[in-house]
């Protein structure tokens, strides 16, 4: 535990889509290095790392609510760590670099998230995310406490698709990748299928703007709130399109955290499978 009880505030910025955030940690270099590389320490402020980091070997950091990153270390040379990762295993690959620099009273930690194809809004979101993560790292090293966040209200993700004949946000092609069924007039059921078996949920408030936007809600029995979903399709860099979704409202079901997270994990897995289906169909 550091000797200074004052929190250090992360500082960051954005350059051409690249996000850089820096924070000072009042802890010795070996302890900071262990906090970002060793599974037992990483889970105290970030997520569950599946195993020790090894260059070139696929690993996974899981947050327990259905969200995760699949990562592959490219460099592990204290005090420098580089890895590539994909959110939910399907998003565009990003390069993350960590640099630790000893100071007179601790370590300066700098993280750079490399992606020059981000929109300004996406870069701002990443800046906010890394600022929060480094705040949690700094607080964990300063206090010795678990500083991980509990779980997220929304499930979101994206996949890049090659431009071509597949149009995921057209009525006739939605059924090829999205787990929905019609009542004969419009989509009425959203299906979740995993190791617990299939289950269907009533769709409400369906609205489709062809090739651009889809919105609907999913009725969760016995809950106080119906999570709302937004699916978007937009041009990305080159001859590609970005298909993204956000399904929000999982902390507002009026259930225990354990029960709500269980359902959230099932929906997250279903959305990942849907994005993978869209990518396969577009290939």
UniProtKB/TrEMBL annotation:
Residues 27-141 form the Activator of Hsp90 ATPase homologue 1/2-like C-terminal domain. CDD domains: SRPBCC_CalC_Aha1-like. It comes from the Bacteria. Pfam families: AHSA1. InterPro entries: ASHA1/2-like_C, START-like_dom_sf. Gene3D superfamilies: 3.30.530.20. Belongs to the AHA1 family. This is SRPBCC domain-containing protein. The lineage of its organism: Bacteria, Bacillati, Actinomycetota, Actinomycetes, Pseudonocardiales.
């Amino acid at each position: 535990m550091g000797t200074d009880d004052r929190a250090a505030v992360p500082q960051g910025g954005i350059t051409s889509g690249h996000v850089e955030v820096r924070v000072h940690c009042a802890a010795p270099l070996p302890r900071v290095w262990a906090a970002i590389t060793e599974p037992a320490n990483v889970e105290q402020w970030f997520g569950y790392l599946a195993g020790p980091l090894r260059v070139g070997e696929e690993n996974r950091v899981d947050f327990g609510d259905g969200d995760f990153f699949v990562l592959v270390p490219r460099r592990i040379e204290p005090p420098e760590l580089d890895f590539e990762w994909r959110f939910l295993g399907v998003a565009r690959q990003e390069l993350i670099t960590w640099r630790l620099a000893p100071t007179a009273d601790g370590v300066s930690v700098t993280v750079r998230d490399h992606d020059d194809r981000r929109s300004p809004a996406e870069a701002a979101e990443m800046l906010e995310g890394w600022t929060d993560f480094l705040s949690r790292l700094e607080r964990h090293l300063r206090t010795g406490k678990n500083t991980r966040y509990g779980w997220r209200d929304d499930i979101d993700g994206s996949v890049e698709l090659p431009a071509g004949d597949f149009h995921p946000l057209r009525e006739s092609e939605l059924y090829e990748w999205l787990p929905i069924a019609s009542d004969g007039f419009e989509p009425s059921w959203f299906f979740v299928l995993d190791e617990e078996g299939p289950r269907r949920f009533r769709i409400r408030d369906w609205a489709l703007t062809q090739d651009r936007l889809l919105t609907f809600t999913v009725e969760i029995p016995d809950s106080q709130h119906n999570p709302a979903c937004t699916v978007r399709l937009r041009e990305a860099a080159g001859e590609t399109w970005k298909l993204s979704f956000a399904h929000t409202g999982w902390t507002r079901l009026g259930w225990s955290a354990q029960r709500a997270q269980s359902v959230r994990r099932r929906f997250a897995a279903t959305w990942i499978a849907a994005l993978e289906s869209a990518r396969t169909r577009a290939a």
